[in-house]
Task: inverse folding
């Protein structure tokens, strides 16, 4: 056992001594891997890009489209007293006094007179189902001849034609009633609007 320790220590001393000799030999030599110049040469490649000629295209603007042809002259519509879609309001013979003078703008006293009555639009639901009927309205004719506060008094069938009749009545125009040269409102004016489909 002791002999093994002795042999191991002796071998370690010999190896250590040889390493010292090797290091001293390397230190004395003049060659240094850090100071020796490299044997190769570095080449830099610089790629020059040649100027390219720019090709410009001259674009011509598109010509404007030709103007639309003006629509042909439409013939003036002839107003007929009969109402389309079978709605009967009745023809009215109105004589309007255009020579207005005086303080109130009216020359003589007189009752209200209808000037314009607009035909109502037949409701599509009633038209497709073939429903006919009427609406009796009551409203106020104002001092300017307009219609105010139309109310349904009677309707058959109820609720089908009410809205169309009221919208049409609001577009009616009247010559207002004149009392002592001044226009006055007239309440309780009634108007019956019939809704009838045309045959065929």
Result:
């Amino acid at each position: 056992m002791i002999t093994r320790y002795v042999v191991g220590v002796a071998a370690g001393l010999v190896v250590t001594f040889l390493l010292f000799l090797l290091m001293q030999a390397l230190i004395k030599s003049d060659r240094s891997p850090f100071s020796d110049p490299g044997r190769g040469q570095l080449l830099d490649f610089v790629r020059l890009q040649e100027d390219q000629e720019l090709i410009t295209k001259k674009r011509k603007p598109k010509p404007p489209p030709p103007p639309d042809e003006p629509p042909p002259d439409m013939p003036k519509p002839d107003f007929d007293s009969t109402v389309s879609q079978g709605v009967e309001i009745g023809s009215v013979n109105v004589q309007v006094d255009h020579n207005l003078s005086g303080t109130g703008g009216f020359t003589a006293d007189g009752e209200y007179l209808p000037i314009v009555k607009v035909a109502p639009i037949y409701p599509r639901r009633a038209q497709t189902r073939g429903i006919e009927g009427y609406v009796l309205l009551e409203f106020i004719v104002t001092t300017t001849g307009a219609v105010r506060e139309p109310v349904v008094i009677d309707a058959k069938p109820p609720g089908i034609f009410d809205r169309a009749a009221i919208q049409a009545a609001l577009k009616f125009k009247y010559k207002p009633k004149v009392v002592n040269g001044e226009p006055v409102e007239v309440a309780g004016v009634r108007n019956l609007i019939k809704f009838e489909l045309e045959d065929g």
